[in-house]
Amino acid sequence: MKMSNLLIIGTFILLGIVACQPPEPTIEDLFPKQLNLLQHGIPIAIQTPEDAKVTNRSDNFMQDVIVEGTDYYVQIYSQNATALSCSDLATEAQREIETGANTTFQRMIKEEDCGFIYEVQAAGDTTKCYNFSYYRVQGNKSFSFSTTTGRRKPFTQEQVERIYEAVKAQK
């Protein structure tokens, strides 16, 4: 066989292998259930796992809703807006985490206009945990979405990134 024929055959084999690679899963693939939170006082729908359960801990002053499922945990607070934009809320929260009394904060992983992902690690512990905060202002209400290391099992960076993207895809 000529070298050019081998090159052509090799190219087709390589293209065939690449074409057979499964596509990256979408947020809807990872979290197929769109959960409407309106009945819990939050006029937003978010992508969640099929087994997601809602706990409503709201009182007269603030909506406090937890959505929990397999590899998924989001706490949502809603109250009267203290800022006009989600970026103002995110900037203030990020500054508090980086400079405040949060002694477990290690570094920012991802920073966007309305949210961020960060790494935490307790003193004397080698386990790295990841959290996020994401904000939305709708009318005169602000919504804060977050996950925390105070749950049963810490999330990996990849898990938190997936949940963060699911929250960002809210409707």
UniProtKB/TrEMBL annotation:
This is Lipoprotein. It comes from Aureispira anguillae.
